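A reminder from the course coordinator: this example appears on the midterm review sheet, so study it carefully.

Given structure:
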């Protein structure tokens, strides 16, 4: 049996769920499917920083009010190199801020809000293919939790199924995308300890990069640069703390039991096409960024704000021009975020074969940012996020 809806959304991550929410507010129906269970979606640990514009969209649209009460407003970050910390003061430079509010909390809020509003979200439903892409009746072919075949026909299919989903392939075909790999990854830990600092510390040291982030008063998230093929179980807790501490000279880390460890490989990617016929890509399905700039989820939200407008024009007014213009408009921000994420990554990490020249040049670059009012403002503007198309 073929079901029908206005917008079929593949993927119940931040992009897919927020899109269904914004469409519903405009009176547009959607069905959201995701291969994962609700529990998997709500418990997978991902990034933690929300741009000011992301927070405004979530709170003003009624998608999450907990972000303001439970999340923590951060008015700066610290860049550390040569053993010294340099604060980038967001409030003083650009009058903006970011919020520390973990992505899985955003997802819990979004799932709860969508289910309370009667949204059709199908967990455990795997998209197998997108068909009739170039027609105005594209179809998602999927398999349900008990192996049943599901077919959803829509005016528009939105691919919000991440970098390994099937929609990317349906849109880009063999073309793929622009792509860059890095010779390092992040070793991430979650530990039970109080915060080691008031704000996030991005640290460049001769031994490599480290990021001291947070989750709550009792749980912390920290990362250090490692080999992409590192085995997360290879190190004892003592070794992990020693490696982290060595990379953040000048701050004594508060240690505690480490209850999760993972290796995050990273890459930069932008799909060659974001729209084909009536199938459109958003979020990680369209692009991925290395995590150093904290842009992943924020970029997904920016895509969705723009796409929700385009779909309102198409489905409420019969105007397809905003959808046709979506790729070009979205790509302006996507490439700015790609640049920022690449820049933060290359400025702070140590490439495995770095020469003395490379090391000294890197410190020169860091100095040119932190010692300049304009350098600090540039970083603050990008980190807190460019204004959204609203
Ligand atoms: C995190 O807390 O997981 C986090 C924070 C900032 C980043 C990346 C990850 O740039």
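Designed residues:
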């Amino acid at each position: 049996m073929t079901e029908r809806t206005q917008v079929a959304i593949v993927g119940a991550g931040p992009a897919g769920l927020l899109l269904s929410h914004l469409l519903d507010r405009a009176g547009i129906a959607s069905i959201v499917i995701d291969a994962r269970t609700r529990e998997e979606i709500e418990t997978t640990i991902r990034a933690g920083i929300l741009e000011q514009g992301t927070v405004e969209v979530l709170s003003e649209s009624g998608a999450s009010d907990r972000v303001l009460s439970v999340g923590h407003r951060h008015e700066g970050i610290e860049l550390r190199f040569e053993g010294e910390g340099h604060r980038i003061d967001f409030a003083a430079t650009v009058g903006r801020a970011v919020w520390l509010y973990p992505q899985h909390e955003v997802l819990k809020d979004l799932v709860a809000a969508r289910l309370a509003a009667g949204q059709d979200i199908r967990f455990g439903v795997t998209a197998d293919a997108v068909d009739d892409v170039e027609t105005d009746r594209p179809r998602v072919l999927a398999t349900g939790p008990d192996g049943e075949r599901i077919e959803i026909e829509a005016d528009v299919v939105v691919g919000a199924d991440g970098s390994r989903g099937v929609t990317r392939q349906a849109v880009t075909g063999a073309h793929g995308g622009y792509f860059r790999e890095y010779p390092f990854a992040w070793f991430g830990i979650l530990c039970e300890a109080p915060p080691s600092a008031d704000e996030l510390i991005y640290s460049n040291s001769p031994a490599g990069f480290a990021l001291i982030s947070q989750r709550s008063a009792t749980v912390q998230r920290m990362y250090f640069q490692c080999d992409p093929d590192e085995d997360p179980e290879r190190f004892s807790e003592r070794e992990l703390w020693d490696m982290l501490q060595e990379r953040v000279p000048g701050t004594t880390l508060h240690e505690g039991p480490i209850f999760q460890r993972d290796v995050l490989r990273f890459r930069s990617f932008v799909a060659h096409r974001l729209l084909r016929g009536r199938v459109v890509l958003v979020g990680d399905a369209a692009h991925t960024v290395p995590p150093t700039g904290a842009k992943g989820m924020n970029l997904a939200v920016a895509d969705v704000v723009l796409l929700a407008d385009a779909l309102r024009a198409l489905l409420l007014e019969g105007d397809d021009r905003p959808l046709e213009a979506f790729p070009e408009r979205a790509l302006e921000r996507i490439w700015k975020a790609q640049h920022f994420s690449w820049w933060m990554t290359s400025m702070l990490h140590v490439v495995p074969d770095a020469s003395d020249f490379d090391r000294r040049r890197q410190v020169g670059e860091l100095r040119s940012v932190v010692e300049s009012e304009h350098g600090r403002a540039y970083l603050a503007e990008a980190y807190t996020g460019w204004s959204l198309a609203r």
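Residues 47-49, 200, 211, 213, 221, 291-292, 294 surround P-hydroxybenzoic acid (CB under 6 Å). Residues 181-266+351-383 form a domain with the D-Amino Acid Oxidase; Chain A, domain 2 fold (CATH 3.30.9.10).
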